[in-house]
Design brief:
The protein is of the alpha/beta class and about 675 residues long. It folds into two domains: about 5-25 and about 70-395, TIM Barrel, CATH 3.20.20; about 420-670, Spore Coat Polysaccharide Biosynthesis Protein SpsA, Chain A, CATH 3.90.550. It has 19 helices and 29 strands. Strands 19-18-22-21-20-23-27-24-28-29 form a ten-stranded mixed β-sheet. It has an eight-stranded parallel barrel with strand order 1-2-4-8-9-10-12-15. Strands 11-14-13 form a three-stranded mixed β-sheet. Helix 13 links the parallel strand 20 (about 435-440) and strand 21. The longest helix has 16 residues, at about 355-370. It is globular.
Length: about 675
């Protein structure tokens, strides 16, 4: 993870406590009547406020229980009810909603203010609100809440929602504590300026923190790692005599029969490795701990004196999902969106280009990573459930409705609907590659398996075979007999070979294969020449000469990304069909240029050899099985056909070449036919 600019970024972005609300500074009096910028944004705000998004949260299917299913923990803010201290500091009746409702847009397309949906501008003193929050969370797949806990040397603030939640017998959702252990300041930065409530860290003060938790730790709904109560600390490095304090906490809990607490530090500010302070784990906390490209100058500002900074959510997404495994336990973290303009008027930090689908893909990738590691209890954290003033929330709003809750549910549904087998036994994940070459075989027409097994056997080399199929397990016997050492992944009957291929790439991209062959049991029953189409492709891709040529070419040419069968690489700009708009949208969503070169081609039939690193961008494609239409689908204009083109175009636009090979093993630049014989 990059560290450059860490202190600057974290101090600008985040604090856990309170803020000073200032009126936005406009560099000039806007001409709201005649300036099209303001007219455009006015109507955009009206659309957000009056959105007609789905009014009910509809679960299309129940989540299946699978072994090692990740447990999603969402951070929960209690700042939505008045307290005497806030009345004194900010005015009678102050809550976080005052900040949220005062936000104004600073640039074109800026989603401000944020309008809550079903729950409205709620008051957390009302039990019915928390009961509905818990119900929505459970329906969407959230396992529990991590409440921010405001404890200052024995003085508690905002404790009422936590106490009510813990003792409400109508709520079954688990919970845990995250100690927001920094100063409470006017600047919402947790530092030492304009302090309203001082956090005095020393051993005598900090040791008493654990005493205050005892009534929560004995609650049967308190979250545990194994039998150890989970306690998070927002800024562990500012604690006093930390080594002595942690020893005291552990001994106290053990003596009181509470078990040794499982201590987790949040990766913010100056904390990264838990081992140096005797913590058990760390947790990612996006968007902190990153160096992101400032794209503010690319936007059309509405405020001439805007001092904030704008970043790209797609970069944030990639930054966190590409983080390598470390030598300590690190829980993955995801944020659905981020914009703290409400807390820092005209000086906030905003990540644009977020969407429910991108969040869903990020969550899926994080969950897959969690499932294949030694992550205790398979925990994954979401920032946050209800951080409205930071634009980081899952709760329904008027612009998106329940889409972020649905995306959370769909991410877990996609994972639970994909079952991995080896030797007829369920396995948790793909751990290690055995050979240098991988094959993805998607099986729908099982009567072609003998032909494919024979062709792969003729390569006379060891292969790691990944087979995807929507067939039920009782139909796997023949597959296992023909491919006894393969990984077999049972997938939903959606997305055909395309969705399944992306699923495989997500699992194996980082394993270091030299090449991967993508093939499927293609019949094209809607065409009389469907079998000829498949056999022509197989003849050129699956023979010993072609394999030798392809491996040599991949080794010698770092810019070679895909090798397809000659005669089947066709010009994208000639064969868009009804797919153009959807292709451009998909490329834009993952941050790839949408300027399609004239020479760009795609592999018709979607069978080819590829260099796995050239396909890494597919991991970020914001689509999963639930996004594809049920069968039967039309012969063109469907998501399957759009992504068939995106695969090759994404490779080309990322600087790789897509070349062709004939049945004699000669690789060359594609000579796209003026007319493709297998397309009407």
């Amino acid at each position: 993870m990059k560290k450059h600019g860490l202190k600057r970024f974290t101090s600008k972005v985040f604090g856990r406590l309170n803020c000073l609300i200032l009126p936005p500074k406009l560099g000039h009096k806007p001409d709201m009547k005649n300036d099209s910028r303001y007219q455009k944004h006015y109507f955009q705000m009206l659309d957000n406020a009056n959105s007609q998004v789905q009014s009910k949260f509809i679960i299309s299917e129940q989540l299946q229980e699978i072994k090692d299913m990740p447990k999603l923990i969402a951070f929960y803010l209690a700042q939505y009810h008045p307290i005497p201290e806030n009345d004194t500091w900010w005015g009678k009746g102050f809550t976080e909603w005052r900040n949220v409702s005062k936000a104004v847009p600073q640039f074109e397309g800026h989603y401000q203010p944020r309008f809550p949906g079903e729950l409205g501008y709620y008051d957390l003193r009302l039990p019915a609100i928390q009961e509905r929050q818990a119900e929505l969370a459970q329906k969407s797949g959230i396992y529990g809440f991590a409440f921010y806990y405001y404890w200052f040397s024995g003085k508690r603030l905002l404790e009422t929602p936590l106490d009510n939640f813990a003792h409400n017998h109508n709520i079954s959702l688990p919970f845990c504590i995250c100690w927001a252990n920094e100063n409470w300041t006017r600047r919402w930065d947790g530092n030492d300026h304009e302090v309203l409530m001082h956090q005095e860290h020393c051993f005598e003060n900090d040791k008493s923190f654990i005493h205050s938790l005892e009534s929560y730790l004995i609650n049967p709904r308190y979250l545990c790692v194994g039998d150890r109560p989970l306690i998070l600390v927002y800024r562990p490095m500012i604690m006093g005599d930390i080594s002595r304090t942690i020893d005291y906490w552990r001994n106290y809990c053990i003596k009181r029969g509470l078990n040794n607490p499982y201590l987790v530090g949040i990766q913010a500010f100056d904390f990264e490795d838990p081992r140096g302070i005797n913590f058990d784990a760390a947790v990612q906390f996006p968007p902190l701990r990153g160096d992101y490209k400032n794209i503010t100058k690319t936007l059309k500002l509405l405020n001439g004196n805007y001092k904030g900074t704008v970043y790209d959510y797609r970069e944030l997404f990639k930054n966190y999902t590409e983080q390598q495994d470390l030598d300590f336990t690190l829980f993955r973290g995801v944020t659905p969106m981020w914009d703290n303009e409400a807390r820092r008027p005209a000086a906030g930090n905003t990540f644009i280009n977020s969407s429910p689908k991108l969040y869903q893909r990020w969550l899926e990738l994080s969950c897959y990573h969690t499932m294949k590691t030694n992550n205790p209890e398979k925990l994954t954290f979401i920032n946050a459930w209800n951080e409205w003033a930071e634009g980081a929330y899952l709760e329904p709003d008027r612009k998106y409705g329940y889409q972020y809750l649905q995306a959370t549910h769909d991410a877990l549904s996609n994972i639970s609907n994909v079952t991995l087998y080896q030797h007829d036994q369920k396995v948790n994940s793909i751990q290690n590659k055995k050979n240098k070459i991988a094959v993805h075989l998607h099986v729908y027409y099982q009567d072609q398996l003998d032909e494919i097994a024979s062709l792969l056997g003729s390569l006379d080399t060891d292969l790691d075979v990944y087979i995807t199929s929507p067939l039920e397990k009782c139909s796997f016997r023949e597959i296992i007999d023909l491919f006894p050492d393969s990984y077999i992944i049972r997938t939903p009957n959606r997305g055909r070979d395309i969705a399944s291929f992306i699923e495989v790439i997500r699992r194996i991209e980082s394993l270091g294969y030299s090449a991967i062959l993508k093939i499927h049991t293609k019949k094209s029953p809607h065409r009389k020449d469907g079998d000829d189409w498949r056999r022509d492709i197989f003849t050129k891709l699956i023979n010993a000469r072609s394999l030798e040529s392809i491996l040599n070419a991949f080794y010698q040419d770092k810019h070679l990304g895909i090798v397809g069968p000659s005669g089947h690489l066709i010009q994208a700009n000639r064969y868009w069909g009804t797919n153009y708009d959807q292709v451009i949208k998909l490329l834009d969503e993952i941050g790839i240029s949408t300027k399609i070169p004239e020479h760009a081609v795609f592999v018709a039939g979607s069978m080819f050899w590829a260099k796995p690193e050239a396909l890494k961008f597919l991991c970020f494609l914001p689509r999963g099985f639930s996004d594809y239409d049920s069968e039967p689908i039309p012969s063109d204009g469907n998501l399957v056909h759009a992504i068939e083109r995106v695969i090759s175009l994404g490779v080309i636009l990322n600087g790789y070449n897509v070349w062709q090979i004939d049945n004699s093993g000669i690789i060359e630049k594609p000579k796209a036919p003026s007319k493709y014989q297998f397309a009407d």
